[in-house]
Amino acid sequence: MQKIIIATVITLFSVNLAFADAACDAKAAEKKLAGAAKNSFLKKCAAEAVAVPESAVTPCEAKAAEKKLAGAAKSSFMKKCEADSGSVVSAVSAPAAKAADAGAACDAKAAEKKLFGAAKNSFVKKCEADAAK
Q1: pTM over 0.90
Q2: Measured between alpha carbons, how far is 117 from 64 in angstroms, rounded to an integer?
Q3: CA angle centred on 70, ends 55 and 80, rounded to 5°
Q4: With contact defined as beta carbons under 8 Å apart, do 56 and 85 qualify?
Q5: Which of 65, 88, 114, 116 could form a disulfide with 82 if both were Cys (CB 3.0 to 4.6 A apart)?
Q6: What is the DSSP letter of 26?
């Protein structure tokens, strides 16, 4: 009986990995990744798929994924969303919150312009400096 249970668990785990691989491959293709970047992305994606079951995704995480937020924009959105829902008490001071909001807005603008790497960093830095004025 134990062998059947163990075999079933292993099979379910393998099926989960297969679906994760297919989803990760689709995401990598969407991002037009190749070579080492693709391999790194696939490895990270598969690890995340195994580590976080779908039932563990909070409503705020689902909203962030729906909006395709990442990095500082996602962090800022998550803090605000969780604070609004009452699940997390925000201990961020007003100036820090304003800076985080400006950073999130600048990251979102960079994403709209499809900027990456040094171009994105430069754009966000200038945008945040302009927002601070």
Answers
A1: no
A2: 22
A3: 75
A4: no
A5: 88
A6: H
pLDDT tens-digit profile of 59-115?
Answer: 888 888 888 888 888 888 888 888 887 644 444 455 555 666 677 788 888 888 888
47: tokens are 């690890």
- Tell me, letter by letter, the H, E, C secondary structure of 29-90: HHCCCCHHHHHHHHHHHHHHHHHCCHHHCCHHHHHHHHCCCCHHHHHHHHHHHHHHHCCCCC
With tokens 């668990």, the residue in question is 9
Q: Is 14 helix (H, G, I), strand (E, B) or coil?
A: helix
**Amino acid making up residue 108:** A
Cβ partners under 8 Å of residue 76, min gap 6: 100, 101, 103, 104
Tokens of 11: 């099979």
CB 46 within 8 A of CB 24: yes
Dihedral of alpha carbons 64, 70, 71, 72, sign: negative
